[in-house]
Write a structure and sequence with these properties.
Length: about 575
């Protein structure tokens, strides 16, 4: 089989290949520039896990929480076999991977595939093309991603380097959650009653809640560092419904990457990261042993009216003591512990200031290929809403209604047949309609006094785009049931975020201020609370591509839609045929 990944990978000390996950590589000297094939096996199993003195059986990959790391290089092909040994239906999404011509491997259930049923398996087969950086994977059915998630690290090609100094070490840090209750029961109850779902009992860092929660001191993530070194932290927000502020006491973070695209570096004491987003930061440790430890903490940024987990997760940054004076070094518990100061929960000014600093590197090697001409323009409102209570029950939404969510007043109805399969086989009748509205049918003062009628429609509607269509998409928040920030995730593409602002988008004035030179390029973009965001992307990837709010409750309520990109004329512009083991509904 040749050399193992642990022998050839420069990050072997940090990205240890987990139990049951296997990678096989030829000798590094023989690795071609086009990459190699890497094999992983994901066994979906129930595992007893204890946090906060509470033990529960939950769905995991290979018994791990969080799940195993997937590691590849740009140009590599990944074959990841997922075997389902639990009663739940399963699908896995490789969040941020472009999936050029390989839409069958994207993963959202009933969009690109039917889910993997009990005792069935599916091999996700795709190649990493033109991407490098931090992405992640997670379940993409119901709320199972609360426990099924892990990092997806794409290293540069051999002989390629980072556009910043090589770090001493690289560490993935995944923000997640712990629920004492079963999350499937939580969302099921919320959808039945029409009210908001119960919130988590703790946030976690790499699966550990940390010392600020009761009965959790032993479950604390500790990041051990050496003085005078630079570390690359690969941050991932896998939380279900909350954006997070993050800071490390007495240390400055240099932001260098977002959603696996390089940025113009900038320094900050605190960063903001939404569910679905990734951020790479450099941290330079102090040049001397500081005789102290430092908390790194995260807590939510809140804009909506709903309930949320108002708690703080903490890990500890520890310096290794000098080797020449071990007998003089006090124990960790005796050292002073410094705490960072995070912004207030509703600090929209900080959020705005931070997001406007994100700019693409835009160099000849890493260009920002922003579409300068626009073929199709779309204006989408993203908002909450209501539907009448079903039957004779009393619902827990506003005025006895059921809460829902919509894009352009259409709450997406999930099909029972995968959209991509229906399109590919020409059997779309009764599965979806190709008439998703390009603009809202009802125009009002979106961020002013909301209309009295908050009811929304529903349907399984798609936008159809010819291959290579350049798209400009404006997404507008509304004040219906309260203004709120929404992180929208686009499968199969990256957005270029060319503009954003508060209030209502003005098509006559705002485009003059668009940044078409070095806008940030990312797969998940936050629509400002009470504002709008302008994005562009080139529809050069044939298939059906989901777009949805990455606040899981809003997605469950229907804040989602899909883009159908038709085949182009050339062979490399066409969706490849479906694999033989594609799951059946």
């Amino acid at each position: 089989m040749g050399a193992s990944f642990l022998q050839s990978c420069p990050l072997a000390g940090f990205f240890l290949v987990p139990l049951f996950a296997s990678c096989f590589f030829p000798d590094p000297a023989l690795v071609a520039s086009e990459g190699v094939t890497r094999h992983y096996k994901f066994k979906v199993v129930l595992q007893n896990v204890t946090r906060l003195c509470y033990t529960k059986s939950m769905v995991t990959i290979n018994g791990k929480f969080p799940g195993p790391r997937v590691i590849a290089r740009e140009g590599d092909r990944l074959l990841i076999e997922v075997v389902n040994h639990v009663p739940n239906n399963i699908s896995i999404h490789w969040h941020g991977v472009r999936q050029h011509q390989s839409g069958w491997a994207d993963g959202p259930a009933y969009v690109t595939q039917c889910p993997i049923q009990t005792d069935q398996s599916y091999v996700y087969n795709y190649t990493i093309v033109g991407q490098r950086g931090t992405l992640w994977w997670h379940a993409h059915i119901s709320w199972l991603r609360s426990t099924l998630y892990g990092s997806l690290i794409i290293l540069p090609k051999h002989n390629d380097s980072y556009p910043f100094a090589k770090p001493h070490k690289e560490i993935p840090i995944i923000f997640g959650e712990w629920f004492n209750s079963d999350t499937e029961a939580i969302i099921s109850q919320a959808l039945q009653t029409g009210g908001g779902p119960n919130v988590s009992d703790a946030y976690t860092i790499n699966g550990l809640p940390g010392p600020l929660y009761n009965c959790s001191a032993k479950d604390t993530y500790r990041l051990k560092v050496k003085p005078g070194k630079t570390y690359l932290l690969r941050l991932i927000n896998a939380v279900l419904n909350d954006e997070l502020f993050f800071s490390i006491a007495n240390h400055t973070l240099t932001v260098v990457e977002a959603d696996a695209t390089y940025l113009k570096p900038f320094e900050t004491e605190t960063l903001l990261i939404a569910p679905g987003q990734t951020t790479n930061v450099l941290i330079k440790t102090k040049p001397y042993y500081p005789k102290a430890t430092f908390l790194m903490t995260a807590r939510p940024y809140v804009t909506g009216l709903g309930t949320f987990d108002n708690s703080t997760v903490a890990g500890i940054l520890e310096y290794e003591p000098p080797l020449n004076e071990p007998h003089q070094s006090p124990s960790i518990k005796q050292l002073p512990l410094f705490k960072p100061t995070l912004p207030p929960l509703n600090d929209t000014a900080f959020a705005t200031n931070f997001t406007t600093k994100l700019r693409s590197l835009a160099t000849p090697q890493f260009p920002a290929n922003v579409p300068l001409k626009v073929d199709r323009r779309f204006f989408f409102t993203v908002s909450l809403g209501t539907i009448p209570c079903q039957g004779n029950q009393t619902c827990q939404g506003p005025y006895g209604t059921m809460l829902t969510a919509a894009v352009n007043n259409v709450s997406f109805t999930m099909p029972t047949t995968a959209l991509l399969q229906a399109h590919y086989t020409g059997q779309s009748n009764g599965v979806y309609s190709p008439d998703f509205p390009s603009h809202p049918k009802s125009i009002f003062n979106f961020t002013g006094t909301p209309p009295n009628n908050t009811n929304v429609g529903n349907g399984t509607k798609l936008v159809v785009l010819p291959f290579n269509t350049s798209v400009e998409l404006i997404m507008q928040d509304t004040s219906i049931l309260g203004a709120e920030r929404h992180p929208l995730h686009l499968h199969g593409f990256n957005f270029f975020v060319v503009g954003q602002g508060f209030g209502n988008f003005d098509p006559n004035k705002d485009p003059a201020n668009f940044n078409l030179v070095d806008p940030v390029e990312r797969n998940t973009v936050g629509v400002p609370s009470g504002g709008w965001v302008a994005t562009r992307f080139l529809a050069d990837n044939p298939g059906v591509w989901f777009m949805h709010c990455h606040l899981e409750v809003h997605s469950s309520w229907g804040m989602k839609m899909a883009w159908l990109v038709l085949d182009g004329k050339l062979p490399n512009q066409k969706l490849l045929p479906p694999p033989a083991d594609l799951p059946k509904c």
